[in-house]
């Protein structure tokens, strides 16, 4: 479990009468009220500050003395509470102090509340300077417009809030969570979109997966179908069958889950071994919870093993220590309510449910679990049941209460019609030429853009890029460039923009923080196999580097080496695919890479979403 460190804090009290002690509510929640350093413009106020704010043991120092120190120490937070009378305040001295402190701080956060929200000028020009503290009428109008839209605002390292107790508490909870990672640097996104042209990330519904336990063939039929498969289809089939079995178990059909798995193991004895240890752990959690572990050709894990696996998952998603859990849960509720943020980086929604169960928030856990299951059912990625739900031991237990079946039942009424429509749309889009496919995406543009499509690249520009890079670019990517030389960010579906061909250059995976990823081509591997695969070396990032979501190509040489290793481990040609370029989609909130079948296939997926949004 990860403990959240307390910020080393400076409190800057503006000249004049002391404000209400309620202004320090954020410091109470951050647990730094009595250990902060208080700066005052008036030496005569030292004793009054100690008594008024009940900080008898705190360090209180005059602004002049603090600024005169050769070594002021390092601080994490400058907190500026509201003043009693902003209109009567001489702002220039305050501006100079803020500028001096901020200029000497590395990674210093600044919080201003109440009237200081206006007087500090943190929302003007997005910098702290004497100029930004000029409270002219235009600035006052702009700042009040922000105030009207949100009680709490984050603008990168600058935080502001109104001075109501509720707003101050909300600010502190969100700021504390931000120190643990995950709060958007512009918050709430609705305000940012209105005032800065920033568009929020949203969870986008994808077509509903309508498979149900009733559609499952018998074990004998399944075995016969497996026997008829070609060797190239075996690995893919075992992957699909395993993840469907996990879904059966989550819905409460343990006997059916075991029947499918035993049939799979009978036909393909090494199936689970090829799927990898994470899959093995998920099914062991299932069996632990149900008490219905069948006879399988490996040992029963010890309770210590199960506990260790669970701790590894909790640590990888940075679940907080017990003393911080409820504050983080409150911040998660705020992120969902205020910002519609269901990604909940770094915890994920599954991690949030786990925390809620740990805290005894059972009703909240069930509410979020319904959302998680419904989202999983709409995903076209079959392994979502294993890796988004079944990897979490507490969620396996929760699923045994029938909540998964309850959530799915609410989706099945219109699922058949939705699936039929999806199939028609997918086939028709696959038949479209690039010149028709790319313009379909225009419905996904920002409101302030006339179009997200760029002028086409010339064949000579593409050839020059290939000569500069020393490679022939993927054919489907070149066909895209001949229609639109790059593309703007598509905010409504969290799809990145693409660079022009003139901007393409090789990137070092290590410099991008990607060197820990192995080139597994989307195959499930055990740890030993994974370590034998090549690491990411150079990659060709084609997406806009300013976007959080990324698309890049892995060069053919690295792909060929990965195929060689995977074939040596027994993977078929049908599973590893053919040599050549491979495209990858990734975002920082995703624990794993998403290997794309092709660049064209990725763009067809975007076109399907545009089609659903009314693009055709």
UniProtKB/TrEMBL annotation:
<dbReference type="InterPro" id="IPR018958">
    <property type="entry name" value="Knr4/Smi1-like_dom"/>
</dbReference>
<protein>
    <recommendedName>
        <fullName>Knr4/Smi1-like domain-containing protein</fullName>
    </recommendedName>
</protein>
<feature type="domain" description="Knr4/Smi1-like">
    <location>
        <begin position="456"/>
        <end position="605"/>
    </location>
</feature>
<dbReference type="Pfam" id="PF09346">
    <property type="entry name" value="SMI1_KNR4"/>
</dbReference>
<dbReference type="InterPro" id="IPR029062">
    <property type="entry name" value="Class_I_gatase-like"/>
</dbReference>
<dbReference type="InterPro" id="IPR037883">
    <property type="entry name" value="Knr4/Smi1-like_sf"/>
</dbReference>
């Amino acid at each position: 479990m990860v403990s959240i460190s307390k910020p080393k804090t400076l409190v800057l009290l503006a000249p004049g009468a002391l404000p209400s002690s309620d202004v320090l509510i954020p410091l109470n929640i951050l647990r730094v009220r009595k250990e902060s350093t208080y700066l005052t413009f008036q030496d005569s106020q030292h004793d009054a500050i100690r008594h008024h704010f009940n900080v008898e043991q705190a360090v209180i120092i005059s602004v002049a003395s603090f600024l005169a120190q050769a070594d002021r120490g390092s601080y994490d937070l400058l907190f500026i509470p509201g003043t009693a009378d902003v209109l009567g305040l001489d702002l220039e001295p305050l501006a100079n102090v803020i500028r001096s402190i901020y200029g000497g701080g590395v990674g210093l956060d600044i919080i201003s509340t109440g009237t200081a929200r206006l007087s500090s000028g943190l929302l003007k020009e997005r910098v702290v300077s004497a100029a930004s503290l000029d409270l002219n009428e235009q600035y006052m109008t702009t700042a009040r417009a922000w105030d009207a839209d949100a009680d709490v605002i984050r603008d990168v390292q600058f935080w502001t809030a109104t001075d109501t107790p509720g707003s101050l508490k909300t600010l502190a909870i969100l700021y504390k969570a931000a120190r643990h990672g995950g709060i958007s640097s512009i918050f709430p996104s609705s305000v940012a979109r209105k005032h800065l042209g920033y568009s929020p990330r949203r969870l986008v519904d994808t077509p509903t997966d309508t498979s149900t336990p009733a559609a499952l063939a018998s074990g004998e039929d399944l075995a016969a179908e497996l026997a008829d498969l070609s060797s190239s289809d075996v690995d893919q089939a075992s992957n699909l069958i395993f993840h469907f079995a996990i879904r059966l178990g989550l819905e409460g059909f343990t006997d059916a889950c075991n029947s499918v798995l035993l049939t799979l193991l009978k036909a393909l004895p090494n199936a689970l071994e090829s799927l990898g240890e994470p899959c093995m752990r998920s099914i062991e959690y299932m069996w632990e919870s149900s008490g219905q572990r069948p006879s399988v050709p490996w040992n029963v894990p010890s309770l210590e093993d199960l506990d260790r696996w669970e701790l590894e998952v909790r640590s990888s998603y940075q679940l907080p220590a017990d003393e911080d859990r409820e504050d983080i849960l409150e911040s998660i509720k705020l992120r969902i309510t205020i910002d519609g943020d269901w990604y909940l980086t770094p915890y994920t929604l599954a991690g949030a449910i786990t925390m809620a169960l740990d805290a005894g928030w059972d009703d909240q856990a069930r509410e979020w679990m319904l959302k998680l299951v419904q989202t999983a059912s709409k995903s076209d990625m079959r392994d979502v049941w294993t890796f988004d739900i079944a990897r979490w031991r507490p969620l396996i237990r929760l699923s045994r209460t029938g909540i998964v079946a309850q959530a799915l039942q609410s989706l099945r009424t219109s699922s058949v019609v939705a699936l039929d429509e999806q199939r028609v749309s997918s086939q028709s889009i696959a038949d479209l030429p690039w010149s028709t496919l790319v313009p379909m995406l225009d419905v996904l543009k920002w409101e302030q853009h006339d179009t997200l499509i760029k002028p086409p690249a010339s064949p000579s520009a593409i050839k020059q890029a290939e000569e500069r890079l020393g490679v022939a670019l993927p054919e489907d990517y070149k066909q895209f460039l001949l229609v639109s030389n790059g593309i703007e960010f598509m905010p409504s579906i969290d799809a990145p923009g693409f660079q022009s061909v003139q901007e393409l250059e090789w990137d070092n995976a290590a410099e991008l923080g990607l060197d820990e990823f192995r080139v597994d081509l989307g195959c499930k591997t055990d740890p030993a196999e994974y370590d034998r695969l090549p690491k990411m070396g150079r990659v060709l990032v084609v997406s806009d580097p300013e976007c959080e979501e990324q698309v890049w190509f892995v060069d053919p040489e690295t792909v060929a080496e990965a195929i060689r290793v995977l074939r040596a481990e027994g993977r078929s040609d049908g599973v590893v695919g053919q040599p050549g370029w491979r495209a990858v989609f990734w975002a920082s909130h995703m624990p794993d890479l998403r290997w794309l079948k092709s660049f064209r296939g990725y763009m067809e997926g975007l076109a399907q979403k545009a089609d659903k949004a009314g693009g055709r």
